[in-house]
Design goal:
This protein is mainly α. 64% of the residues lie in helices and 6% in strands. The two termini are 52 Å apart.
Length: 427
């Protein structure tokens, strides 16, 4: 028996995972993940006020969790190895942590990502594309629980290296930096990867222009509100809310994830240059980090809630339209005549076969003289009794003589059943 015959549906065969082509594919994936991880780590370091301490937001945490959730478990070892390679390059080119401490922290990061992915797959969904608010909340809870591992290891390591600072303050800042990375990057990976095969409709030229206008508006308004001193007041913090709502309504979760990431990068850059945060002597670097992390996390998280809700409603609407069109096609093109009658016996719907039987072209023509008048006089009393019985919830059948619109008399073998949830009866 061939090996492919033993492979479950939807899973690639073992033969597909071997050979030179598969090896090249896995090598390319390894290199791509390592490179993106190192780039995210460097970007996080560049946007950190004090690179010797924990990052303001750690994008690789969200990257790893998102990749583990979208890839098969047999590839998790490859992803973790790529993470180690990318982190090694990052540490060698800029972070310059002692290698023993680096290895300890990197093991904690890997364990955190794997634990978070396992919790999500166990308690939320095996394959999640953030199609419901429940999945979003479950993802955040699972990530928060798993981040206890890396936060504890990281706070202990930094305190032992720097020899100063409160363990609790370092732990809190490390925790929120990783959590912000999860909020910003993991949803972006999940909704753009289409974990459940969501179709990607191409954007029209108008929609492309709207998307460019959205991102440009976020950049301009956020830059002005943060950089101009005369605009810095409590109300300016809400300048991004209209853009998040715009993205949620018009572009769904994918739009919100892009806007949130752009906003986070801008806010991090301006905070690094002394704008947008309290740089007075009373505010420490840890406190400014936590303020930045909380604000960006709330915008990204609560922006996704309406986006996911609207996307779910639109998906349900599409499914209802498809279901209605499917049933309509069966009704219209069925070989047997089908009618839908109202409580008074009026004709509400009729298919093509029944129109031909009644010698009519349209619903209006078939019901112009009243359905009761189409039944010959001697059978109308029996038809009225059948109609009342069906309206009361019963089923019945009868053989009725019916006169068509052109005068032809035919016998109608009528089988009537009550509707499921609306007044009237079907025949």
């Amino acid at each position: 028996m061939p090996a492919s015959a033993l492979t479950p549906p939807g899973e690639p065969s073992r033969a597909a995972d071997s050979g030179p082509t598969a090896f090249r594919g896995r090598a390319l994936k390894f290199a791509a993940v390592a490179g993106v991880y190192a780039a995210c780590a460097m970007l996080s370091r560049e946007l950190t006020e004090n690179p010797a301490l924990e990052a303001s937001f750690w994008l690789p945490s969200g990257l790893m969790l998102g990749l583990l959730l979208t890839e098969a478990r047999r590839d998790w070892a490859l992803l973790v190895a790529a993470m180690f390679a990318g982190d090694c390059f990052y540490n060698a080119t800029g972070a310059t942590w002692p290698w023993a401490d680096w290895f300890f922290v990197t093991v904690g990061n890997a364990a955190t990502a794997v634990a978070g992915a396992l919790l999500v797959q166990r308690w939320v969904a095996r394959k999640t594309a953030l199609e419901s608010v429940r999945e979003l909340i479950g993802l955040m809870i699972a990530a928060a629980l798993s981040l206890v591992i890396t936060s504890t290891i990281g706070a202990w390591t930094i305190q032992s290296l720097a020899g100063a600072g409160s363990f609790g303050a370092i732990w809190t800042s490390w925790f929120f930096s990783d959590l912000l990375g999860v909020v910003l990057v993991t949803p972006l990976i999940l909704v753009w990867s289409g974990a459940r095969g969501e179709p990607r409709a191409p954007l029209s030229s108008v929609r492309r222009f709207e998307a460019i206008a959205l991102v440009s508006g976020v950049c301009v308004c956020c830059s002005l509100a943060i950089s101009l001193d005369w605009l810095q007041n409590p109300a300016s913090r809400y300048v991004v809310v209209p853009f998040v709502v715009w993205a949620a309504i018009r572009f769904g979760p994918r739009g919100v994830t892009v806007v949130s990431l752009v906003l986070a990068l801008l806010a991090g850059w301006f905070a690094l240059h002394g704008h947008g945060l309290d740089h007075s002597n009373s505010a420490t670097a840890h406190e400014r980090n936590v303020e930045l992390q909380l604000g960006l996390s709330l915008v990204a998280f609560f922006g996704l809630i309406p986006a996911i809700t609207i996307a779910a409603l639109r998906r349900q609407e599409r499914e209802l339209v498809e279901q209605r069109n499917f049933h309509r096609a069966i009704f219209d093109h069925g070989p047997e005549g089908m009618l839908v009658l109202g409580p008074a016996g009026e004709l509400l719907q009729i298919n093509r076969a029944a129109l031909a039987f009644l010698e009519a072209e349209t619903l209006a023509e078939a019901g112009a003289a009243g359905w009761r008048d189409a039944v010959l006089p001697e059978a109308r009393a029996g038809f009225a009794a059948l109609l009342q019985q069906v309206l009361a919830g019963g089923r019945d059948s009868a053989l009725l003589p019916v006169r068509g619109r052109r005068g032809g008399v035919r016998w109608l073998d009528l089988h009537a059943t009550p509707p499921a949830a609306s007044p009237g009866c079907s025949a």
